[in-house]
Amino acid sequence: MQQEQPADQQVRLEKFRLLAQTLPQSISFGAVLALTVLAVLWRTQPPGLLLGWFAAHVGLNLWRLSVLRRFRRLQTNVAAAMRLTLAIQGGCAVAGLLWGLLALLPYAPEDLSTPLFVAFVLAGVTAGGATAMASEIVAALAFQFAIFAMLALHLLRSEGDAAYQAMSFSALLYTLFMALWTNRMHRNAVAAIHTQLDSTRREQQLKEQEARYRNLAHHDTLTGLPNRLSLQVRMSELLAHATANGLGVAVIYIDLDRFKDINDLRGHRCGDALLQNAARRLRDCVRATDLVVRMGGDEFIVATTEAQSTVQIVTMVERIAASLELPLLYDGEVLKTSGSMGIAVYPEHGADLEQLLKNADIALYQAKATGRGNHRFFANSMSVELRERIFLEQELARAVGTAQLYLEYQPLFDLTSGRLTGLEALLRWHHPERGLVSPKVFISIAEHCGLIEAIGEDVLRMVCRDLQDWQRAGVLLVPVAVNVSPIQLERGSVVESLLVNAREHQVSPSLLQIEITETALMKDTGRVAATLHRLRELGVKILIDDFGIGFSSLNHLKNLAIDGLKIDQSFVSDMIDDERDAAIVSAIIGIAKSLNISVLAEGVDSPGHVERLLGLGCDSGQGFFLHQPVPAQECARLLMRETHDQSPLRQRSA
User: For the chain, which end, N or C, has fewer CB atoms within 10 Å of the first or last residue's CB respectively?
Assistant: First the structure.
């Protein structure tokens, strides 16, 4: 048997609901009519027969009412309610049968008034049944055809005169007509039910759609977390609860480190997966009553009343940090990120959401400035520092591509012969109001605000332009080392930029050297290696700058085929008086020689440095004793003297 569809079942159940509404009134009317029949027929019919009929009528109606009450109680349980529909239909059939039995009572042939009365009663009952039970055609027809059957049986048994038979036959036809009329009323009732259900369904759909739109307006579609709009509502409730109960609220502003790099390099699908994973981890780190919000991009907010002391807040922050730092496997590749966090606490750091978010954002800014994966609590002094940093960001953005950014060149020398072996391009920023701004300040700002690639391209352009000028002047050209940001290296943009500028200024790429930091090697060896391999194919040498402070793995040095190391000046400057620094310098020189790569010492500021470095086997260096950084014009004169074998260092050594 084919299973009934949910929509059909709903229509059928609605028919019985309408029937359940009308039957009690119909049963009450039937009870009054049964009393009337009992009174009218009492004198002409056997009392025992009438009383038995009436008792059966009352018992049936009581049972039918009990079934209807059970049906109404079970309407929410569709399966159980549908099981009672057979009982309701059966009750209607038995009721019709009881009324039809009136036609089988013994009547005197000469007395037409009694059967006429019965005929009118049955006609009225049939018409009433058509009206009361039209919604459920099976129940209605079961009732009416039970009466019809009794009338037909009576007519077959009747031996009365023609008038009596005509009256019975008329009642039979009327019953049949009402059955047809009931079918028509049923169609109208079903149409009304469908209209009502469609209206209810549309209303429900509108409510669901409204709820969905409300949910979309207050939730982030990617992660399912509440969004900025929801934060305003729920944070007000959280602050009100905290105020009423004397609690503090920790607002933790979270930014995913390196998200932009991962999103750009591996695509938006990967970035979306990272955001969804971060959202799940944040939700798992806090209580169900705490608030986790995605502010947009890779920024999240956690607001909690769980942590009521600095120690408790730090514990929660460390728990969140540890969760975010867990690796994520995506398409067979392991992704690693971390979270920088700024923390503001209500009511110490703000009395409302706007102030708390502003101060938490300031603290986040300070946390990111000190490196990835750090956290900072807001302090009033941060506001001054932030204003200064924002000012420098804006001014640096204006300075890119202008004369404010220019190059100086640090000469590199062979310590034994005194010969100039190369130059290192050093970027300078001369602000019209602030004067010279330290590279340690503006380079970190450039990396943080996304200007580093534009600045890196600018540096390569200026270096290639100066090389072109020196080449035209006919001086001896030496390799020029350019510092490259880890961001440029990982994205590979440095390769294209170098090729474009070298081709434009007609200089050989082999005249350029790339200096990278040890930390760049530790990020993503595969991608870094691909970029370095492309550079080396162009004849560009790769040097590691500030070696010794980044804890490089020897495997990285071997696998990446580095051409040279530059010993960080922090070890060189104190090596004369501190044997531990001298031992570190000696170890680095030993590593370089064992790997057959060149080594150069930074920070050579005295004759003692030169002597000690030569004694340890270091052949090259740079520093103020050897030569200070000079502008491009002065560097051209220095190269000219080198061309004519008039190096100042060789003259000083002689």
Answer: N
